[in-house]
Design goal:
heterodimer, A: about 650 residues, Four Helix Bundle (Hemerythrin (Met), subunit A), about 90% helix, B: about 190 residues, alpha+beta, OB fold (Dihydrolipoamide Acetyltransferase, E2P), 5-stranded mixed beta sheet, globular
């Protein structure tokens, strides 16, 4: 599994890295936890700060509400009345408070408990705002005074009518004390304004009735003046009195409300403020407690990290050092083995390169011999080529001649066939003639028989038949001659027919012979054409052989060149092997070699003589001298050219070029 | 038989001169008295008769008459020869108990009618052993050749005659007179 150095190093580093990763993970986790604790602590601190601020704000808020009562300049309640909109309300119903609630359930309970009094607190502000009106209480007394003034004024006017004593009361409604106050007075109270508006006309009517009375009275119309007084002045006064009472009633109710508002402030606001403040203080206490717990945890984590990380790091360092030691010792051991092998290898390379050098020289010699042989082969091939071409030409001619022969034989066969037919016809005719002759012969025979019978009869007739006997004899003679002639003719014809048959047989045999000749001629023609084709192919083959020979020639030249290059390369190889030895020594030194150079040589010899190493066949006797020469050159430190080693003259290569 | 012997003995050589019909059997010329010859016919179809000796070829139908035929080659113990276009049948008359009987003889070929004189004839030579030479009338020397002159009655001896007569009697109910009549008619013609 750990057979390569890379794998071993990889595994070692992997172990160390794994441990480092584990350490890092643990550290990261601890720091993360500490961070979280710190965050919780911060959160609690900010919450405490918030609560302090809220406490301050609410005290300020309560002061603002109480200012409404205490400070005359403050005419309106300018505070936050919605328990969700105030700073504490916003915070109380925010997400922050839910996370704070998660810290401690007691805090959540307290927060829940705080909500109701807080709402009540703000609601009380609303109630106070609704009830309380900033109001100058002197109006009440002033109005009562003015009312009395006007009553006096009316009394004065009545007295004027009764006594004719000059009326000194104010006629202009704007000039009287009320008028002066009225037109300078402004209030934001809608209801009061409405109520006071009713006053204006009635007051005007009242004052204007006085002018009318005075005018009527001074013109002497006392009755009319009295009438106006009774009618207009008194009505106006009466009505004004209603208005007065109404207004006064309203002012009284306002005073009542203000008192109630103060009551609310004292009862609800202050009470709830105390509740909220108490709860907030409780929360503060809890948060403080919580903060202490977190701080303790944080301290314990910190002390753990302080102890754990250095110890673990030291352990990992020790383990890493052990792995490094193991790996380095292992790798050094392997490297030593490899160096040993390399040293042996370089020795072998050196001797092998010597052998290659000698082999290259042999190869060069062999190449030159091969080249001369190729020259001869090429010349022989030239001859063979010309002969083959002649053969091909002759075969071609023979082929043509055979074609002619074949046609002649075919004609002869035709003629023979015709002749055979003619002979057969002649034979048939002869046979027919033979039949005729036979008929003639038969007739002659019959005639002979008749003649004989006639002779017999003539003999029987005795003397009387003598003449007849002579005739019969003659007839018989004639018949005999006819028979003889027929016989001769028959013989001749038979002879002829026989000869014709013989001739026919001969002709048939000749025909058969001609057929054979024809067949043979065909075969000969085929063979000759095959020979011609074969000659042609042979010629082509020889051409290819020529090309191949040329290629071989080239290759041989190439081989000679390569052999010289090979010798050169072998020289370089020797140098390289020397270098390799030096490098091996360097490497040994670097690795911390325990082998001395002497030891290396001894070990290398042991490696070289080991049976499993293949020994290259030793060079030929003639080559050894050259090899030694080469090695001498190499050891002399001079760069040896291959031409010097391989004794190849330029003349040797001229053969290849030819 | 005694009559035949008598007749032969009484005849002198000179008396035997006259015309002879010559024929060949196995390249040998034989002669036959012309007066014994009735007719010469070419070879014709022969009806074989069972249970007859080997030399009897059978019978032929010659213009309505049944005539027995013998093969002279076989009779003389020669090699049998198939009929050729030269083969002839010589119809002779032999003298039997019941008169003249026509008899056919198959010969190789018929040569000619020769007039043989007395000086050309010689008696049958003595062969130094006892041979049955009774059927030979004599030898004639003509043109450097020897012609054996046959006595046809001796050739067809008694046994043969009997047989022939038997044949005739078996095959025909006609009397000898008929034969005579036939012969007479022939002569008359």
């Amino acid at each position: 599994m750990f057979d390569t150095i890379g794998k071993r190093i990889g595994v070692g580093f992997a172990v160390v890295l794994l441990l480092l990763t584990i350490l890092g993970s643990i550290s990261y986790y601890v720091i993360e936890r500490m961070g979280a604790l710190r965050e919780t602590d911060d959160f609690a601190m900010s919450a405490t700060a918030n609560i302090n601020e809220i406490e301050r704000d609410h005290l300020a808020w309560v002061n603002a509400v109480s200012d409404l009562f205490l400070n005359k300049n403050v005419t309106k309640l300018d505070v936050q009345t919605d328990d969700h909109q105030c700073k504490f309300g916003k915070w109380l119903y925010s997400d922050e408070i839910t996370s704070l609630a998660e810290v401690d359930p007691e805090i959540a309970r307290l927060l829940e408990k705080i909500k109701q009094p807080h709402q009540a607190l703000h609601d009380s502000a609303k109630q106070i705002d609704a009830l309380y009106t900033e109001f100058d209480l002197s109006i009440d007394a002033m109005l009562a005074e003015r009312w009395i003034d006007h009553l006096n004024w009316a009394n004065n006017l009545g007295n004027y009518l009764l006594t004719s004593k000059r009326f000194t009361g104010t006629l202009d409604p704007h000039q009287c004390a009320f008028g002066q106050w009225y037109y300078s007075f402004h209030t934001e109270d809608q209801k009061l304004t409405e109520l006071l508006q009713k006053w204006e006309k009635l007051h005007n009517d009242l004052h204007y009735s006085a002018q009318k009375i005075i005018d009527a009275f001074e013109s002497g119309d006392k009755a009319k003046a009295t009438e106006i007084y009774e009618q207009e002045t008194m009505t106006a006064l009466e009505q004004l009195g209603l208005c007065y009472r109404e207004t006064m009633g309203y002012i009284d109710s306002m005073v009542e409300n203000n008192n109630r508002a103060i009551q609310v402030f004292q009862d609800i606001t202050e009470h709830n403020t105390a509740l909220v403040m108490g709860s907030l203080t409780d929360i503060e206490v809890l948060l403080d407690k919580h903060q202490r717990v977190v701080s303790n945890k944080y301290d314990s984590f910190y002390s753990f990290v302080q102890k754990f990380i250095p110890i673990t790091a030291v352990l990992i360092l020790i383990l890493g050092a052990m792995i490094a030691f193991f790996l380095s010792s292992n790798i050094v051991g392997n490297l030593r083995q490899i160096i040993l092998n390399l040293s042996g290898g370089s020795q072998q390379v050196y001797s092998a390169s010597e052998q290659i050098s000698s082999a290259s020289m042999q190869l060069a010699e062999g190449s030159s011999e091969q080249a001369s042989s190729l020259q001869e082969t090429s010349a022989s091939l030239e001859e063979i080529t010309s002969m083959t071409k002649n053969n091909a030409d002759h075969a071609h001619q023979a082929n043509q001649l055979m074609e002619e022969t074949r046609s002649v034989v075919a004609e002869a066969s035709q003629s023979m066939r015709a002749m055979d037919q003619s002979m057969t016809e002649i034979s048939t005719a002869g046979e027919e003639i033979g039949k005729i002759i036979k008929t003639i012969d038969e007739i002659a025979f019959q005639t002979n028989l008749l003649a004989l019978n006639a002779a017999v009869e003539a003999a029987r007739a005795g003397e009387a038949g003598k003449g007849f006997a002579v005739v019969a004899d003659e007839v018989r003679n004639l018949a005999q001659r006819a028979a003889d002639a027929a016989k001769n003719t028959s013989g001749m014809i038979e002879n002829t027919v026989r000869k014709i048959n013989d001739g026919s047989g001969l002709a048939k045999r000749t025909f058969v012979a001609f057929e054979k000749v024809s067949g043979s001629a065909g075969k000969v023609a085929d063979l000759v054409s095959e020979i011609a084709a074969a000659s042609k192919e042979q010629s082509q083959g020889i051409d290819q052989v020529n090309i191949a020979i040329n290629q071989i020639d080239k290759v041989t030249q190439q081989t000679a060149a390569n052999a010289s290059q090979g010798a050169n390369a072998a020289e370089k190889l020797q140098i390289q092997s020397e270098n390799l030895k030096v490098m091996v020594a360097d490497l040994t030194r670097i690795v911390g070699g325990t082998y001395s150079a002497q030891e290396l040589v001894v070990r290398n010899e042991a490696v070289l003589s080991s049976p499993q190493l293949p020994r290259i066949a030793g060079p030929k006797k003639g080559m050894i001298e050259r090899r030694t020469k080469v090695t001498a050159h190499t050891r002399g430190g001079r760069v040896v050219k291959p031409e010097e080693i391989i004794p190849l003259d330029d003349n040797n290569f001229n053969d290849f070029n030819g | 038989m005694p009559e035949a012997l008598l007749e032969r003995n009484s005849q002198s050589l000179a008396g035997r001169e006259g015309k002879y019909l010559t024929f060949t059997l196995a390249h040998q010329e034989y002669g036959l008295e012309i007066m014994k010859v009735k007719e010469i016919i070419g070879a014709m179809e022969v009806t074989t008769v069972p249970q007859t000796p080997g030399y009897v070829e059978g019978v032929i139908n010659l213009r309505g008459k049944i005539i027995p035929v013998i093969n002279l080659r076989m009779k003389f113990g020669m090699e049998f020869l198939e009929h050729t276009d030269r083969t002839c049948i010589i119809v002779t008359e032999i003298h039997g108990k019941a008169g003249y009987i026509p008899m056919g003889m198959v010969v190789d070929s018929v040569s000619e009618v020769l007039n043989i004189k007395g000086e050309e004839m010689e008696t049958t030579p003595n062969f130094g052993v006892k041979l049955d030479t009774e059927y030979i009338l004599g030898m004639a020397k003509v043109k450097g050749k020897v012609i054996i002159l046959l006595d046809i009655n001796q050739v067809l001896n008694a046994e043969g005659m009997l047989l022939m007569e038997g044949l005739r009697s078996e095959e025909s109910s006609e009397s000898r007179e008929d034969v005579h009549d036939y012969l007479d008619e022939e002569e008359k013609e």
